[in-house]
Fold this sequence. Notes:
There is one protein chain. By secondary structure, this protein is of the alpha/beta class. It has one domain: Aldolase class I (TIM Barrel). It is built from 7 helices and 5 strands.
Amino acid sequence: xxxxxxxxxxxxxxxxxxxxxxxxxxxxxxxxxxxxxxxxxxxxxxxxxxxxxxxxxxxxxxxxxxxxxxxxxxxxxxxxxxxxxxxxxxxxxxxxxxxxxxxxxxxxxxxxxxxxxxxxxxxxxxxxxxxxxxxxxxxxxxxxx
Length: 145
């Protein structure tokens, strides 16, 4: 569910969430800033998801503490892990950066680690894996090398 109304933030807190995802492409900068502030006032962390430099500017205006760079193009669903590599340099080092989508093997993790990424979000890579435990071990070990 995309967060588009403040009620959803209160509902997320009530349901036990510790963090919510705010998508910069669907919220104007004032709403994004308000939602981010509201979430933090309720004790929730936020990940503000971005796809380009303009959305990074919106996230910074919203006082993001965590920015997620989505490698999936939401218009055609194509994946490009280079999006993280291209956009990371525009995010200050005091903000945590998460690379989202398209991470499926140890090579992807090693490339991202060299770009100073703080975390990865893996979904489809686990869903396609024949053994999720082995896939998780592979990705964790790749981050340590």
